[in-house]
Design goal:
13 helices, eight-stranded parallel β-sheet, alpha/beta, two-stranded antiparallel ribbon, 360 residues, 12 strands
Length: 360
């Protein structure tokens, strides 16, 4: 793997990841469901937003930091839960945990990645969030939650948009499935998940509850009514329901429904500092990165993820200064407006020298 210090853009990291990854892993990480319309709309949503800068503001000191559930973040970017991380780098989830600790972020640990949740927790002493896919009844869930509590996880994240696994045609066409798909016993319990079960699991956990997969104002309000602490706006990176809206397009209605009663996290299509700024301006408290995290892992393991975050930090700092914003708390909807996209939307359209998503 190349020295991560040599990368000057996340575009170079993506290109390095493509060189390092075999076709199966690349397709699993980079693709979406069916026609990939939802995935492209994630990117299109950001491409259709312009920024409204203010000038003659003293921006000689820029503070990109924020807090999430009481923990300080160096930038408002965390590492999304991802399955089968071990296919992208030998250390798997341990590499992501080490990267989060080194940079000053928080990683969400998926219940369907390797190594075990305990091994990932033991790799560093920094806060981590456990993300659970439901593969059993409430007693099974209680057992998993107890393991996470003993390992020191700070919050529980339940993914709720996977009642049925989608048709992700890039890997299907290769007759390949990720390791997480080979351990699917009990998936029916994911389809049986309800709001009442989420409440039960929060009581069992005794820690903040994050619900991942909210895509409408109606469900955001229900989440608040059921005591959810963090609304996680996500469409699974466009990898579940096809022809959904981009997450940034749903954010304003969700933020209005939440009305400050819960924190809001968003993922889906985030590849640039300007994407982070736009999400915060429209109501998110922080964002998560998935594909970009995976590309960093594929390019240079732990060091690749750290470099991804460092490059985002540089972009965010420049964006804030040129917007006339000194800290992330100053961002609001006045800094964002609708605009015409200038590129064809695809998973890498933020990088204009990767034309038409050619890294297939």
């Amino acid at each position: 793997m190349a020295n991560a210090l040599e990368y000057v853009s996340n575009q170079e990291i993506i290109q390095a990841a493509r060189r390092n990854m075999n076709q199966d892993v690349w397709d699993y990480l980079t693709g979406g469901a069916e026609s990939e319309t939802t995935m492209r709309r994630n990117r299109l949503g950001f491409d259709c937003l312009g920024l409204r800068p203010r000038v003659l503001v003293d921006v000689s000191k820029i503070d990109t930091s924020t807090t999430f559930l009481g923990q300080k973040l160096r930038i408002p970017v965390m590492l999304a839960p991802m399955g089968s991380l071990q296919t992208m780098t030998p250390e798997g989830g341990v590499a992501v945990g080490k990267a989060a600790a080194e940079f000053g972020s928080i990683n969400f640990v998926s219940s369907v990645t390797q190594p075990s949740l305990e091994e990932i927790a033991e790799a560093t002493t920094t806060p981590k969030i456990f993300q659970l896919y439901i593969r059993g009844d409430i007693d099974w869930c209680a057992g998993m939650i107890e393991r996470a509590k003993k390992a020191g996880y700070m919050a529980l994240c339940i993914t709720v948009d996977t009642a049925h696994y989608s048709r992700r045609e890039r890997p299907l066409l290769n007759r390949w499935q990720p390791p997480s798909r080979h351990r699917e016993q009990g998936r029916i319990f994911q389809a049986m998940l309800t709001w009442d079960m989420c409440v039960q699991m929060k009581k069992i956990a005794g820690m903040p509850l994050i619900v991942k997969g909210i895509a409408t104002a109606e469900d955001a309000k229900l989440a608040v009514d059921h005591g959810v602490d963090v609304i996680y706006v996500s469409n699974h990176g466009g990898r579940q329901l096809d022809h959904g809206l981009g997450t940034i397009d749903t954010l304003p209605e969700i933020a209005a429904a939440v009305n400050g009663k819960a924190s809001i996290v968003l993922d889906g299509g985030i590849t640039r500092g300007t994407d982070v700024v736009k999400a915060l301006a429209l109501g998110a408290d922080a964002v998560n990165i998935g594909k970009l995290q995976g590309w960093g892992l594929g390019a240079a393991g732990k060091d690749g993820v750290v470099k991804v975050l460092e490059l985002l930090e540089e972009e965010i700092t420049i964006d804030m200064a040129l917007l006339g914003v000194k800290n992330v708390g100053e961002l609001n909807a006045n800094y964002v407006c609708k605009a015409q996209p200038v590129t064809f939307a695809h998973e890498m359209s933020a990088f204009t020298h990767i034309l038409g998503g050619q890294l297939r």
